[in-house]
Specification:
By secondary structure, this protein is an alpha+beta fold. It is 37% helix and 28% strand.
């Protein structure tokens, strides 16, 4: 399988600076979206440093990814890839947390990170925070990641309904972030990939405005313009936050 991604980021209509960052590495098959948080320029630093740290460490694991691409799907090989993704996000956590310890103005900064590696017949996802990864297959979009937010946890526990979560004053409270502590729990998962599949990685400035039906329709109909269309729609509907979209298409 081959993967080809296109990414777009935008400050939105209400923010003065863009704290989102992303990476599209078609050669490595690596795609990342990060949404920074923190005062001054701290969020920008956190997201950019995290993206660079993840990209660097995943790049060092190229031999493992090459094994999977060549058809090696033994459990030990797949476990090595999972460890690679976990280590990459932990590396980003150490980096961002360490920077904050030496820069008083940046203490408390952090970032979400959603990362996708496509290798052979597999997609490997690493997730911290509330940026999302969707799989679009046969005209249907499905969210592959779990939001690490207070309201998402409350919905899963049956404390509030999804409708209540959508208007909750706590809907932006993150329960996991890269860099806010020395260690973070990383969600990982493998998904099989097929020719014609597509993925959308996005920050919450996008997924707050587009539902899964719209996501599938835009990815199917807009070709290489899809990422920009997502940004344009989010801005037209309010643009209350920074907006980032990375659309990845799978071919043989």
């Amino acid at each position: 399988m081959r993967s080809q991604g296109i990414g777009v980021t935008d400050v939105g209509r209400r923010r003065k600076n863009n704290q989102d960052a992303f990476a599209v590495d078609n050669d490595l098959g690596l795609f990342i979206v990060a949404d920074g948080m923190g005062g001054h320029a701290s969020g920008e630093i956190a997201s950019e440093e995290a993206v660079d740290a993840v990209r660097s460490l995943v790049g060092k694991g190229r031999p493992t990814l090459a094994q999977i691409s060549s058809g090696d799907d033994r459990p030990e090989t797949l476990r090595a890839a999972v460890r690679l993704m976990e280590s990459a996000l932990q590396n980003a956590t150490y980096m961002v947390f360490g920077i904050a310890q030496y820069e008083p103005d940046q203490q408390g900064m952090g970032t979400t990170v959603s990362a996708l590696v496509v290798a052979g017949n597999y997609g490997l996802i690493g997730q911290v925070g509330d940026s999302r990864v969707y799989l679009i297959r046969d005209g249907v979009a499905a969210q592959l990641t779990t939001d690490h937010t207070l309201v998402a946890w409350q919905v899963r526990q049956g404390i509030i309904t999804p409708e209540e979560a959508a208007v909750s004053p706590h809907r932006n409270v993150i329960t996991r972030a890269v860099g806010s502590r020395e260690y973070v729990q990383v969600d990982t998962r493998f998904v099989p990939v097929l020719p014609g599949d597509a993925f959308l990685l996005c920050s919450d400035g996008l997924h707050g405005y587009c539902d899964e039906g719209e996501i599938a329709e835009i990815v199917a109909s807009e070709g290489d313009n899809a990422a920009q269309i997502f940004v344009d729609i989010s801005n037209a509907r309010g643009g209350r936050d920074n907006i980032t979209a990375v659309v990845v298409r799978i071919t043989e």
